[in-house]
């Protein structure tokens, strides 16, 4: 929310369910102030650690899976981890394990290629997000893996 005039769509965990957070008019007006956005960014940085963020992401993905499963019982729900050689985050690893235990299919790009996806050749100017070359490298092995499921 730091650089955005309007707050992102946000979800709150209420009694184990993800509910879309609603912002009142006063908050929307305050959000236009750079100082307010800066203070809120610092507040969220302190409040939300990796554990909370990954728990919320787990809830979002597993609720989506469960909702789809009601309508399409034979669905193959796949989560793709775009892995870049980075620091180990235990909460992330735990989240992917929990997703697999739920019945969600987990595929990591590290199982699709041995190339370093953080290399300049495979990233946009920011040095992090995947570019066309990265996707060209990954699409065929990903399709092959999915077809074998």
Strand content: 5-15%
Unreliable runs? none
For the terminal residues, how far apart are their CA atoms?
39 Å
**How many strand segments?**
4
Please state the structural category: mainly alpha
The major pleated sheet works out as: 2 strands, antiparallel
Radius of gyration: 19 Å
Residue-averaged pLDDT, rounded? 87
Shape: globular
Tally the helices: what do you get?
5
Helix percentage range? 40-55%
The spatial strand order of the largest sheet comes to 1-2
SSE string, helices as H and strands as E: EEHHHEHEH
Summary, kept brief:
It contains 5 helices and 4 strands, in the order E-E-H-H-H-E-H-E-H. With 149 residues, the chain is mainly alpha-helical.
Please tell me about this protein's structure:
It is a single chain. The chain has 149 residues and is mainly α. Helices cover 48% and strands 11% of the residues. The protein contains five helices and four strands. It has a two-stranded antiparallel ribbon. Strands 3-4 form a two-stranded parallel sheet. Helix 3 packs parallel to helix 4. It is globular, with a radius of gyration of 19 Å.
